[in-house]
Amino acid sequence: RSLTDTDYFARRQLRQLCTQPHPSEDFLPQASEILPGLYLSDMYTATNPAVLARLGVTHLVSVQRDAPPTPALAHLRVPLDDARGADLQSVLAPAVLWIERARRRGGTVLVHCVWGMSRSPALVIAFLMAAHRMPLGRAWAHVRARRAVARPNAGFVRQLAAYGQV
Asked: Whole-model pTM?
């Protein structure tokens, strides 16, 4: 049987809790500020009410099939697998528009996927390309400078390149 994102995360969290007296450093909540009012993170951070409150998050974007339950925040669920063949382009326009509207209204947006490495960075890169007119290379470098683990999969990179041509 194939594990869902939530199953995988839950098993990792359980293993972490059972084998150490406290979570290891790589498991601590970490959100990367991409722009003022725009953060990128993993699912653990996105489900930590203390972190969300400290950052002033008002809007949450979950880029995964099995989005975790959320606190009382505006929440956009973007069901997308982290696979080369996943159709990123079909979700970009509505998600980018949602983020743009939230920020225009003074909201603070946190975009996350399970690890904050592929899906959510791809969406944030697309946002920078569309809303800030950055070319793909500059948007990617901007995100990587703020979140070193950001590495969208090859299929997403191809789709981002096509998105930049539109």
From this structure: 0.82
Sole residue written with tokens 């869902």: 4
Pairing of strands 31-35, 38-41: antiparallel
The CATH number for 110's domain is 3.90.190.10
Q: Could you tell me if residue 62 is inside a domain?
A: yes
The whole-angstrom distance between residue 18's C-alpha and the CA centroid of its chain comes to: 27
Per-residue tokens: 30: 């970490």
| 105-127: pLDDT as tens digits | 999 999 999 999 999 999 999 99
Report the catalytic residues.
Answer: 113
Distances (CA, A) of 53 to 41, 72, 109, 143: 14, 11, 12, 23
Q: Which residue, 45, 59, 10, 13, is CA-closest to 116?
A: 45
Closest CA to 64 of 106, 21, 120: 120
Strands annotated E in the chain: 31-35, 38-41, 59-63, 74-78, 109-112
Quick count: other Cβ atoms within 10 Å of Cβ 14?
Answer: 10
Instruction: Flag whether 11 is in a domain.
Output: no
The residues pairing with 40 across neighbouring beta strands, listed in sequence order, are: 32, 111
Q: How many CB atoms lie within 10 A of CB 1?
A: 4
